[in-house]
Each structure stands twice: as C-alpha cells, then as structure tokens.
Amino acid sequence: MIDADTPKLAGDLPEASESATVETQAVPRRMPDEVRKHLIHLRDGVLYLPSAARVLWFRMEHPDWTILTDLVEGGYEAGWATVRATVLTDRSRPIATGLKTESKAEFPAGWVEKAETGAVGRALAMAGYGTQFAPELDTTAPDDPAPTKTVRRPVHAARRGQKQEHIWDGPGLCPDCHAPPGKPHAGRCRR
Description:
The chain is α+β, with helices and mostly antiparallel strands. Helix content is 18%, strand content 22%.
C-alpha cells in the first residue's frame, strides 16, 4: 500500500488551458487515493498498477466512455489468444489500443480472459492511466536486438528433470503453430 507520504507522481499532468476541448486537453489530475492504494511493490522497488485499478480510475473519470475488446487471433481451440482492447470516448473516438497474447501452456486456467485483461490494462496505460506503473510497456534497449530464432529455455518442468519447452522468439508468430514471441510452441509444432 502507498501512503500519503508518497511524493507527487512523475506522471501527474500539468494544468491545462481552459480553452481546450474536453477530449483533447491534458486533464489536470492526480491518481485518486482509491486507486493509489492498489499500487503493488514488485522486485527491485518497481511499482505496478494492476488492470483492475486502471479500470477503476478510468470509470471514475469517464463513466460514459467505452472499452471494446475483440479476439484478433487464436481462441480456445487454438490454445492461445491475441486480444485487442480499444478505449473510446463517448463520441466513439479511439483514444488508445492495447494487444496481449496468452497461451494455454502459460496460463491454463483461462488464457483468453487473461489476454483480454492484459489488453485492457495496456490500452488504459497507453491512455495515461498508470502509465508510469506499467513495466510491461518497457522495451528492450535499441542496441539489444531481439532474437530471431527459437531458443531452448529451461522451465519449471525442466528443473525437475522433465521435458524442456521450445520458446518462439519471433519475429512475429511462428509460421507453423502461430506461437507469439516469448511463448512456447504448440506440442505438435515442427520448430
């Protein structure tokens, strides 16, 4: 829990001019205390604002705006899912989008729902709701190119002497099983 002694957040927005329209002005705001209490301390002192708290903050400020989600690829039959979330104003103007992919192998209890929640959280972070508390938006350094081949990474099962999973490292989806980067290949994948 974050207490009242927490310094002003770097992401707090400056005062906006009164002549700007509601949709385009930088609305002066601080994270409400009802939302601030949901900040979580991660390893290395990093703070994280969960998706549910971002939705709460968004609904407090814009109860008439909408968050639409749609399944882009995959689904229950595929064993993985990519979901897109779009934040829309009351006039159906898109403000931000977010994508998230999850697989059955990574989250067997409900990978489609987890992908949807992650996409909503990313879209809201892109719209300014807890952006500074969204480590998932960090990218790799420009001098650290992303791998472009499948690599073997040990997983928990491998530590117990069981089979290691092959992780697809892109770019894009695996052409055989459509595994997204950073996720394991499907069981019957040839790669």
